[in-house]
Amino acid sequence: MSENVFNAYSGYYDLLYRDKDYAGEAAYIVRLLKQHGINHGSLLEFGSGTGKHGRLLAELGYQVHGVERSEEMVALTEQGNGFTCESGDICNVQVGRTFDAVLSLFHVISYQTTNASLNAVFARAAEHLEPGGIFIFDFWYSPAVYAQQPSVRVKRLVDENVEIVRIAEPEIHTNENRVDVHYTIFATDPLTGRVQTLKEKHPMRHFSLPELDLLAETHGFARVGTEEFMTGNKPGESTWGVCITLKRI
Ligand SMILES: C[S@@+](CC[C@H](N)C(=O)[O-])C[C@H]1O[C@@H](n2cnc3c(N)ncnc32)[C@H](O)[C@@H]1O
Fold first, then answer.
1. Gap from CA of 238 to ligand 1 centroid (Å)
2. Region 215-235: what's the mean pLDDT?
3. Where does 9-140+205-248 sit in CATH, by number?
4. 70 by DSSP, 3-state: which?
5. Spacing of C-alpha 135 from chain mean position
6. Does 9-140+205-248 match 144-204 in CATH topology?
7. How far is the CA of 136 from the centre of ligand 1 (A)?
8. 194 CA to middle of ligand 1, Å?
9. Is 181 helix (H, G, I), strand (E, B) or coil?
10. What is residue 234's DSSP assignment?
11. What is the CATH T-level fold of the domain 144-204, as seen in this structure?
12. Which of 104, 138, 177, 188 is least surrounded by Cβ atoms within 10 Å, i.e. has the fewest?
């Protein structure tokens, strides 16, 4: 993945995802945590973005620390009241303490496209947990990607400062389990009519369960939960986003 991913994008990130149900997702994560006896305590969030889940989870009683590679996203993050974050790469981060759970939400794991980076992230998750600790993440699910095939999507958003049109064009790499999403963002200043054009490539890897089980077992985890993100349904060809819970043995 290019080091620049999310740098240009970051300024418009919260506007692009303003309709995302972060509060509902935080409540869903709390349900999963409680299923595994984590009713309060400390959470390490990998790829914390602008801190939306982290701040909500802090409001729900957890102490949350985020790690985020994009310095632009970290700069936009509001810290305090139970939520802190640092800029860093989840492939090599060492916070220096363990947590009750590690979380990685909104397809952050799918941004780890190489076997080396995946091995590194699973190793970092294991190092920051004691035995019995939980690692929860959602990801693109291979059966759904193959069955549905990614297509071109256009999103338009407006606020008082800017009008955004984002075009997402997928480039499918079947043999690499990867889809490179080419984003073009046209940002128009409503006062001057000036248009800024940004381009970013987001390489996304998708996973099957046996592949993730192998990674999990290699790093001392067992899979203890598997479901469609948010609905809790059994994953299938229509399930683009799957959420799994791993327990450190
Ligand atoms: C789709 S965003 C999700 C952000 C946030 N979790 C949310 O739900 O809004 C993916 C995030 O993962 C971060 N990311 C991807 N790979 C990373 C890595 N190796 N280390 C740290 N952050 C990473 C990106 O910079 C980006 O902020």
1. 24
2. 98
3. 3.40.50.150
4. coil
5. 13
6. no
7. 15
8. 29
9. strand
10. P
11. N-terminal domain of TfIIb (2.20.25)
12. 188
> Band of the pLDDT at 11, cuts 50, 70, 90?
confident
Q: In terms of C-beta density within 10 A (0-12 exposed, 13-18 middle, 19 or more buried), how is residue 161 classed?
A: exposed
Instruction: List the residue whose alpha carbon is closest to atom 1 of ligand 1.
Output: 106
Rounded CA gap, 123 and 127, in Å? 6
- Amino acid identity, position 237: E
Query: Hey, where are the domains in the chain?
Result: 9-140+205-248, 144-204
Give the model confidence (pLDDT) of 141-195 as tens digits: 999 999 999 999 999 999 988 999 999 999 999 999 999 999 999 999 999 999 9
Instruction: Place 2 in a pLDDT band, splitting at 50, 70 and 90.
Output: very low
Q: For the stretch 14-41, what's the b/e string if a residue is b when 16 or more beta carbons lie within 10 angstroms of its beta carbon?
A: ebbbeeeebeebbebbbebbeebebeee
